[in-house]
């Protein structure tokens, strides 16, 4: 099968070629992909959003680290200054707990990718978006 055939099949099935190539959510192992990659990484790779190289993984997890820290700071600030309702407070508390779990996952993966800690200071990532440049 070539790319043209895959595109036609995807069109007929009303989906995308990437969706045909990406394993179902419930599948935890992939054939042909080293087990050293997380399902999240493989999914981003299949969508063309990540390269499965040291530099690609470093850049991805640096970005995720910055996003996660910003979201944690937002929810902590919102909870500190009060939410408009109990439902919002409960929702924010749950979201904060989820983000703290995400932070733990990023920390573990970051150490695996680069034990020097470059993921966590995200200097490489932040430097690419410096407005002074």
What does the model show?
The longest helix is centred in the last third of the chain and has 28 residues, at 86-113. This protein has 133 residues and is mainly alpha-helical. The model has no long low-confidence stretch (mean pLDDT 83). The chain has a domain at 53-127. Helix 4 runs antiparallel to helix 5. The chain is 65% helix and 0% strand.
Biggest sheet, open or closed, and with what strands and sense? none
Pick out the low-confidence regions: none
Structural class: mainly alpha
Total number of β-strand segments?
A: 0
In terms of DSSP E residues, the strand content is under 5%
Query: Percent helix among the residues?
Result: 55-70%
Number of helices: 7
Task: Briefly say what this structure is.
The protein is built from 7 helices and no strands. The protein has 133 residues and is an all-alpha fold.
Structural key phrases:
7 helices, mainly alpha, 65% helix, 133 residues
Topology summary:
Blueprint: H1 3-12, H2 17-21, H3 39-46, H4 54-80, H5 86-113, H6 118-121, H7 123-127
Helix pairs in contact: 4-5
């Amino acid at each position: 099968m070539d790319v043209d055939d895959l595109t036609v099949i995807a069109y007929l099935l009303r989906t995308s070629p990437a969706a045909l190539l990406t394993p179902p959510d419930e599948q935890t192992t992939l054939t042909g992909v080293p087990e050293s990659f997380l399902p999240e990484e493989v999914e981003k790779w299949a969508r063309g959003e990540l390269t499965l190289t040291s530099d690609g993984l470093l850049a991805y997890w640096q970005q995720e680290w910055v996003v996660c820290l910003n979201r944690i700071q937002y929810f902590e600030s919102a909870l500190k200054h009060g939410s408009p309702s109990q439902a919002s407070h409960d929702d924010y508390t749950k979201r904060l707990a989820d983000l703290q779990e995400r932070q733990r996952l990023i920390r573990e993966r970051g150490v695996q990718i680069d034990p020097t800690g470059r993921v966590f200071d995200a200097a490489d990532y932040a430097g690419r978006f410096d407005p002074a440049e």
